[in-house]
Structure formats: C-alpha cells, structure tokens
Amino acid sequence: MKNKWVSTAYVIVIVVGLFLSSTKNLYASEDRPMIDGSYLTHDNESIGNDTKITRGEDLLTGYSKCVRLGPGKIYVGGTTFAAHVVDSVQIAVTVERAQEGDTAWGIYDGWQKESQNTDRVGSNRTLEVEGGYYYRVRCLHAANSDMSSSFTDGVYVEDP
Question: Residue 32: its pLDDT value, please?
C-alpha cells in the first residue's frame, strides 16, 4: 500500500513539473495574424521544414531559417539534404517582408546555390534590413529532379 502512495506522489510531482516547465506560448488561432500561411511573431527565430511537392528517391528533406540578430539585422538561409550522393543538390532562398495589416509578402532579397556530386547544400547570409517589418524565408529544395519547399513564420525586426 505504501508503494502505491509513493508511486502516486511521483506521478503528481512529474505532472506538476511538466506544467510548470512548459515555456511554449499557446495562442488562439484568431489572436495571431497570418499572411500566406506564416504567423507574424515576435520570436527571435523561426525554422520551417519542407513539404514534398514531388515524390522521388533523391530528396530527403530541407529547411529554411530566419533569426533576428538585433535591431535591423537578420540571419537567413536554408539547407537541402539528399537521401544519398546525387548529381545536383540545389537551394533557392527568398527573403520576404511584410507589415502587420498587409495581405501578401513582398520579395526583399534572394539567391540560389548548387552543389554537385554531394548529398547536401546550404546557403545563408546576414542581412542589414529596415526595421518595422516582419521577415520570413522561403526556400525551394531540389535533389536532381525531386523538389520540395519550406518557409518560416514572420519574425519582427525593430528599427536600429
């Protein structure tokens, strides 16, 4: 009987600990503004994982990343991973921006990179940007003819 009470006490302590240690903010869907599938956030960082466009054997996964480094400065980029060494692995990175109340993202910057006879390619940059905007990264990932895309949520950048 004593072991049952001890076990119950441990379970209660663990459950209470999980509730107290949770740091993720939860929002009601109607409270968070969204443009084209990306939430507008004041988080320091946003990572987007790929969604497959074609089915194939060459492309494994890809991701895009946007990090606020400080007022007027962001780190942006992405990576494409092939399932094995392929002839061509590519990434096209597009940085977009919008303000709250906008209905679409505008293109701010973009570039692409290709690596041959390998299983991955990554490309990133640090950009000085205008404050008062939300910035997101959208990437197109390709390994030979397999393709997918990814995008981040919008990260707010303050004026320098």
Answer: 84
